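Input/output pair, single chain:
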Amino acid sequence: MPPPPESDPIALSLHGVHLRFPTGVVALQSLDLDVRQGEFLSLLGPSGCGKSTALRLAAGLIEPTQGRVTRLPGQPLGFVFQEPTLMPWATVFDNVRLPLRLQGRSAASVRDEVMQVLARVGLGEFEQAYPRELSGGMRMRVSIARALVTRPKLLLLDEPFAALDEITRGRLDDDLMRIWQEQGLTVIFVTHNVYEAVYLSTRVAVFSSRPGRIIESIEIEGAGQRDDAFRATPHYVERCVRASTALRNAQS
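Output:
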């Protein structure tokens, strides 16, 4: 999938966003961010800079103290948290079915939809397994499947692969990129990993230290053509250096 053209509609906009917690801590200040439909945007920044807070604002889970958050009308969203947060007593099938069950739909009526999304994340043969029987990477795949089963147009992911080993993380990065391409999603991905951010994204937004705001926006070429060879290209290396430098500046 090529980067979205400038004429594509804005899927999400945060304008003049300021967030102060009841404790008095200012998490975000003067945050402006436009995300175009079809974009894969990674949010990169120091720990505690407000990346996850911005993601929750985008999802409507919290409200800004000041400013405006707007999403393209008729755009359902899915959210993947840092931890899979699965129901340990329920099978993979029932964990993925949960959002549809909350809509009042029976297991029989949604079986095909659930099985299709399980196949998409490589878990088509694990529908009757329980979370305790799965590896960490497989549990995260279940969490992603649960977010996808509602057919979102906007997918928000909050450091979903941070606790995984590098091999598993790399595989899930490739799976996520494939899903983004196949379904035409708009993705916002929070990570601390510069190399992961540059590999996955059409754009990387680097946050300042708290209170968070965007200090640099880095466009990445070659979207949809990412593989091990991409990591050896001068473009990838240059963008990684640029993102690393911006991250160091954010912490100074």
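Helices lie at 51-59, 92-102, 107-120, 136-148, 166-183, 194-200, 234-251. The radius of gyration is 18 Å.
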